[in-house]
Specification:
single chain; 94 residues; YefM-like fold; 3 strands
């Protein structure tokens, strides 16, 4: 994570935004009042989705069960991709 002053951010904002997007590197902008973090939208969306999944108890339990199964080298009893997306079979993708 890059840390810069608010004055540097103001002076070089376009360059900082481009660097943050291209390098998927967060930028910490520091001021006397506190700090903010600039992240690429794609990274932000990924973080929000991860938080959403962690808040969903069923998803979180499934994640833990999957990790435990792999750790014990057990075969998953989950659905195959074809079973999970059976309703999309025969649909042409664009």
């Amino acid at each position: 994570m890059n840390a810069i002053s608010i004055n540097t951010a103001i002076s070089n904002f376009s360059k900082i935004v481009t660097n943050t997007i291209n390098n998927y590197d967060e930028t910490l902008i520091v001021s006397d009042e506190g700090s903010v973090v600039l992240v690429a939208e794609e990274e932000w969306n990924s973080m929000v989705e991860t938080i959403r999944l962690f808040r969903d108890k069923k998803s979180l339990n499934a994640l833990f069960e999957g990790h435990a199964s792999r750790k014990m080298r057990m075969k998953s009893n989950g659905k195959t991709i074809d079973q999970a997306f059976y309703d999309l079979q025969g649909v042409d993708s664009e």
